[in-house]
Automatic annotation (TrEMBL):
InterPro entries: UDP-glycosyltransferase. Keywords: Glycosyltransferase, Signal, Transferase. Coiled coil: none annotated. The keyword Transmembrane does not apply. Its EC number is 2.4.1.17. It is an enzyme of class 2 (transferase). It comes from Plectus sambesii. This is glucuronosyltransferase. Residues 1-17 form the signal peptide. It comes from the Eukaryota. Belongs to the UDP-glycosyltransferase family. GO terms for molecular function: glucuronosyltransferase activity. The lineage of its organism: Eukaryota, Metazoa, Ecdysozoa, Nematoda, Chromadorea.
Amino acid sequence: MMKTFLLAVASLQLCTAYKILVYSPGISNSHLMFNGRIADLLINAGHDMLIYKPELMARANKNGSDVARILTVDVGLKEKWAKAFEKLDYKLSVETCDGKLFFFSLRADLTFTYAAQLKRKDIMDVLRAEKFDLAISETMEFCSFGLFHHLNIPSNIVLSPGPLMDFMADAFGFPAAASHVPS
């Protein structure tokens, strides 16, 4: 009898559902779809998910999820992001560039985006009240991790829908062996 009771109590830990925030900025439909599919898989595994989608690009209009709760917020930067991508598209068509140009050219816009979100006290209060156990974000930008800290989310997971670029690996402390990472 006691063994059965202990086994039942121990199995409860295996069934724990977590409250998880997925930070999915509206920059690209492909990234929104990737993040939404991750959320759907975790919901199917029994977790409580919320996708937080700050709207940044008008063309990024997918939800990405079939079942997750989604908090879509216009942070007032769509025009700024449209101009940033116009400038980037021009640079990519005229100049030779590597992957670093893309991310470094958007660094200032990401900083403005983070600041605009923090100014939305109403949204920050809603997110903080959720008391998330875990947050998920991509390696596309690092502002989300400051946001997670601001919201007192104790743990986070980093996703990469593509190959991990060398400068991102450096930022996360992953070694890049010269034998297979030539840059």
